[in-house]
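C-alpha cells
________________
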Amino acid sequence: MATPSGSNATISSGDPSRKYGTQDPKVRNNITCNFCGKVCKAGISRLKQNLVGGFKDVSDFPKCPSHVREEMKTYMKAKEMSKVENVLKSTIQLDDYDLDGDKDCEEIDVSNVAQRKKARVKGPMDMFFSQVRKETSGSGRQQTINEVCNKELREKACRDVTRWFYDAGIPFNAATF
C-alpha cells in the first residue's frame, strides 16, 4: 500500500515521506496520502505534518501506521537540527571581529536555538555595529530612529577615534574640533 508510484519514482530525494504520498502530475503541491487517500494541497511538508500529527494547523491521519509516524518524527527532528547547525556554521562570529572590545556578547548554544521558533542570526553587517543597550528615558516620549542611531554612531565613532589616537601615540590636545 505504501509503494512509490510512477510520479514519485523520478524524484530522487532522501526524504522518507515521498514513499508515503503520491504527487499529482498536474498540480505540484497536491500530494495524496497512500494510507487513506486524503489529498494534502500544501505540499510535502504538510503531508509530513499530517503523518506525524500533533501540529496545530493540520489534522493527523488515523490510518497512519505507528512505525511510519516514528520514522517521520525522527526525520523531522534530524532535519531541524541540521538546519540549526548549518545556520550556526554559516554565521560570522562577532568575537572574531571584535573591533570595539565589547565582551558582553552571548554565545548561542545549539540546544537553546532549537527550542526557539526563530533563531536570531547575526549577519556580516553586525560586526560593524555594536549591540543596542536598552535605556529608559525619563522624558516620556519615544525617541525617533534617527536620534537613537545618531547618538550610538557618534559614541562609537568617538571611541574609535580616541582608541586610534591612543594607539598612534598622538596627544589628545593635538586634535581640534
